[in-house]
Amino acid sequence: MKTIITAHFRTLSLLAAMLLGVPTIAGAATAEQAERLKGELTPFGAERAGNADGSIPAWDGGYQNQDEGLGADGRRIDPFAADKPLFSITGANMAEYADKLSDGMKAMLQKYPDFRMDVYPTRRTAAAPQWVYDNTFTNATVAKLAEGGAGAQPELAYGGIPFPIPENGIEAVWNHELRWRPAALNIDRFHGYTLTSDGQKVMVLESSNEEQAPYYEQNERADFDSEYWLVRSINSGPPIRAGEGIIGRLNLDESKTGTWVYLTGQRRVRKLPNSCCDTPTPFSAGNVSFDEVNVFSSRKDRFDWKLVGKQEMYIPYNGNRILTPASDDEVLGDHYLNPDYVRWELHRVWVVEATLKEGERHTSPRTRYYLDEDTWRAALADRWDSSGALWRVPFMVPITLPEVPASVGLVWGVYDLTSGTAFINRLMNESPSQIRVVEKHKDGIFTPAGLIGASLR
Asked: Which residues form the signal peptide (predicted)?
């Protein structure tokens, strides 16, 4: 009976899409395939079992200790502070671990003699509320890829991973874009730095974010209008940039995504004509492109996306440790994050490769992304330039929010292998109040008018 009902629901959904004039370009999982999410697979589609030698344990529901979220002082707790590294990977011994290293990490180990990766016991902490799992199960049987104004976009998905059993690369990368995150967050007074080739640390950004994920507003499916992530960022420093602001409204139809900036010199809000792809972002002082934010966040229609497969890889994970020092300087090295505060673990990742379509232009015509199987969050990427040389290494350090429960990306950045520079963003070691889950924001703060009110100086 359950199979019949599910099949009927899928038929009605397809008819609705046809009536709306939405051309379907990819199909959903069958009811039988979706049942795997309650057995051999986790609710998000990862392999529930551990690996052969036990270095990756079985998933047992994730980490949900309510008492190990925020401390009384407003700072994040590191629930695994007592863990010790199992071993460290350096340029001298990297050959022993080469099959579990990305090309970018191999290049970092070769380029910088003091760079190392401290590998800790693997903890599969990924967790989400039951309603997110329920929505993911529904998405598995009804969500489709359809042709939108800027290429393939999800249809009929809401409140969960859209394609927990992906068939292709574009489905996998949409899983990253629509990964589970709390519906409303405040990230107060974080810093962004440029690390220069001669080892200087230059703060280019002090800012505070309000973030909203309408896609994950519980019980509001009927009100979801395809804008899945909203952000307002207001700068308080450095002095030359104080008062600037930027808002972004990301849409499943990426031709409708919009970004606006408040320019203090003009006292006006301007809509950016091209807030995507390899366009440099203003908030990073031009150090990174829009599609390197959070490893990847941008239009997808310039590339062909290939789902290469899965592999075991050392990736940043459970990074609450990076929030414990009281100063940014302690966390920053001369050319990269201080290895003392970056926790690496062995996890299975989906490998997705993006190749520039014929006739399109981009500074990185080829990129390989590594998506954590438990969360669908992009952990690392390797980017090649037009000559075929490995060029840039985007990364993201996630933290666990056990009180939600959730695992979210926090510190992110890009290492430039050619110039020897780096951009590292969202350090909040000097903030009195670190990342917090809050009540739903008012939509008006994510509008040009709301940007003016918050940004004036």
From this structure: 1-28
Same domain, 147 and 280: no
- Asked if the structure places residue 8 within a domain, the reply is yes
43-78 pLDDT tens trace: 999 999 999 999 999 999 999 988 888 888 889 999
Residues 28 and 115 occupy one common structural domain: no
The number of folded domains in the chain is 2
CA nearest 378: which of 365, 393, 358? 393
pLDDT tens digits, 97-110: 999 999 999 999 99
**Number of C-beta neighbours around residue 61 at 10 A:** 12
User: Residue 249 pairs with which residues in a beta bridge?
Assistant: 230, 258
Q: Is residue 101 located within the same domain as residue 199?
A: yes
Q: What CATH number did the domain enclosing 351 receive?
A: 2.50.20.10
Same structural domain, 51 and 71: no
62 Rama sector, left if φ>0, alpha if ψ -120 to 50, beta otherwise: left
Same-domain pairing of 32 and 78? no
Do the beta carbons of residue 370 and residue 379 sit within 8 Å?
Answer: yes
Nearest to 323, CA basis, from 440, 412, 446, 430: 430
- Burial pattern 322-336, b for ≥16 Cβ within 10 A else e, equals bbebeebeebbbbbb
The one-letter amino acid code at 19 reads L
Question: What phi, psi does 387 have (nearest 5°)?
Answer: -90, -5
SS3 175: helix
Q: Is residue 345 part of a domain?
A: yes
Q: What is the secondary structure of 23-39 as a DSSP string?
A: -EEEPPPPHHHHGGGGT
Print the domain residue range for 48.
2-59+128-155
Statement to judge: residues 189 and 249 lie in one domain: yes
Bridge partners, 348 (sequence order): 312
| DSSP notation for 362-380 | -S-SEEEEEEETTT--EEE
Which residues fall within 8 angstroms of residue 11, CB to CB, at 6 or more apart? Answer: none
Global pTM value: 0.93
For 390, residues 6+ apart whose C-beta sits below 8 A from its C-beta are: 103, 104, 107, 382, 383, 384, 417
